[in-house]
Amino acid sequence: MTAPSLQPTRTLHPLLAAFVRFVICGGGVGVASSGVLVLLHGRMPLAVANALVTVVSTVIATELHSRVSFRSGRGGWGVHLQSGLTVAVSYAFTTGALLCLYAIQAEPSTLVQQSVYLSASALAGAGRFALLRVVVFGERAADGVREGSLGKSSVVMAA
């Protein structure tokens, strides 16, 4: 009788694994934020509640992305500021997409609005993932250069 052979387990590519963790952490914070926003809605103006929830959820998501998504040792207010800037850019991108839609079509259907918003959000999320991975949480070598970022030779090889 022969011993059963062990099949090699397939593991996710580290970049894909980080992206899955990013989506789960960010999505979880987003769902929790939505619930908190509903709870705060009757207690304060919606704009104030939304601003409060956005700031707190960005801080929480940044901590989760640092510790779970990217498994980085980086922390501090500089990281939170950089992450907050990526949120601001994402907000501007999704708002710009909707403004473009309204410029093209005065009264788009709810399905079209949601399609544009969700598509823009997905693109903004992918861009945010890339910025957080390379710029905010990228590993830094002793000479200050980020490891894992695109170097001159990587760009030349890609072209």
Topology:
Elements: H1 14-41, H2 46-69, H3 77-104, H4 110-136, E1 139-140, E2 146-147, H5 152-158
Antiparallel strand pairs: 1-2
Report what the structure shows.
Helices cover 72% and strands 3% of the residues. The chain has helices at residues 14-41, 46-69, 77-104, 110-136, 152-158; strands at residues 139-140, 146-147. A two-stranded antiparallel ribbon has the order 1-2. The chain is globular and about 70 Å long.
Question: Which descriptors apply to this entry?
Answer:
5 helices, 159 residues, mainly alpha, globular
According to DSSP, the number of beta strands is 2
Count the DSSP helices. Answer: 5
Low-confidence stretches: 152-159
Cross-sheet strand order for the largest sheet: 1-2
Taking Cα atoms only, what radius of gyration do you get, to the nearest Å? Answer: 20 Å
Helix-and-strand structural type: mainly alpha
* Helix fraction by DSSP (H/I, runs of at least 4): over 70%
SS strand fraction: under 5%
| Biggest β-sheet description | 2 strands, antiparallel
**Could you give the distance between the termini?**
55 Å
SSE arrangement, N to C: HHHHEEH
Shape from CA axes?
A: globular
Q: Report mean pLDDT, rounded to a whole number.
A: 83
Task: Describe, in short, the structure shown.
The protein has helices spanning 14-41, 46-69, 77-104, 110-136, 152-158, and strands at residues 139-140, 146-147. With 159 residues, the chain is mainly α.
